[in-house]
Amino acid sequence: MDFFGIHWVEWLGYLATATVLTSFLMKAVTRLRIVNCVGCLLFVCYGFLLTPLSKPIIITNLAIFFINLYYIVKK
Question: What is the top-level taxon of the source organism (predicted)?
């Protein structure tokens, strides 16, 4: 399925990028980490949906997700 000539998986990548970038606009660190976690999970989904799947995208974003989660729970 394409929207404006762009495959939906690529749109997911753009959404993940926008979410991570938006997280860095947050003043509150906890909110930044929560929004960043959402972006990381979107990137993990994106990495799995690529053909072939992208292990570097998946591994990096899972690591960032768990680091963020650690600091969210720690507070």
Answer: Bacteria
